[in-house]
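Lab notebook, design round three. We kept the backbone fixed and only want residue identities now. Task for the bench partner: fill in a sequence for the structure below.
Input structure tokens:
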């Protein structure tokens, strides 16, 4: 079977093979992350998240076994892409933060403030004034989906030609007002 035909079969089930990283990605708008194919994790994902019938799940498993005999990597062990690349269209784009002093990235504001306080301010409180120059608002992507966790690895992506993102102007005005009051 030609590569295009193989891709078409997977695409009808919202699956995409990222050949270079050797990952299988669920491209559903609700997902947008790489799937583990170990044990029955792939079929469980297709059954529970997308209600794909058993006959189709077997077809997918057979197809992957025949056309990708080398298998797929565990997404949790995949190397993140380098910063600054255009956003990968099949992965989720996340609004996140990048520390200016080290490679730390997160999508969680509290994790960022805790990181800056403990790692860069020797435990001092993180007022808006102390924080503002210590991070960038960025767009992030990751191979995996985890709600939280230090093991989550992100890379910064370029979206619409920009590496940084602007927050909501109303929220930004509020933060500026809070910062001015602190001063």
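Proposed sequence:
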């Amino acid at each position: 079977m030609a590569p295009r035909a193989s891709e078409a079969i997977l695409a009808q089930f919202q699956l995409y093979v990222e050949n270079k990283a050797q990952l299988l990605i669920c491209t559903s708008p609700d997902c947008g992350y790489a799937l583990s194919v170990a044990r029955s994790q792939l079929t469980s994902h297709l059954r529970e998240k997308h209600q794909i019938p058993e006959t189709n799940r077997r077809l997918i498993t057979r197809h992957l076994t025949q056309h990708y005999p080398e298998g797929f990597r565990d997404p949790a062990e995949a190397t993140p892409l380098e910063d600054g690349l255009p956003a990968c269209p099949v992965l989720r784009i996340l609004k996140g933060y990048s520390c200016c002093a080290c490679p730390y990235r997160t999508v969680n504001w509290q994790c960022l403030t805790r990181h800056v306080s403990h790692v860069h301010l020797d435990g001092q409180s993180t007022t808006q004034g102390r924080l503002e120059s210590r991070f960038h608002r960025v767009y992030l992507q990751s191979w995996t989906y985890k709600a939280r966790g230090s093991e989550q690895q992100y890379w910064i992506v370029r979206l619409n030609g920009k590496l940084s993102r602007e927050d909501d102007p109303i929220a930004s005005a509020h933060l500026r007002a809070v910062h001015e009051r602190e001063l």
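Keep this in mind before ordering anything: The radius of gyration is 20 Å.
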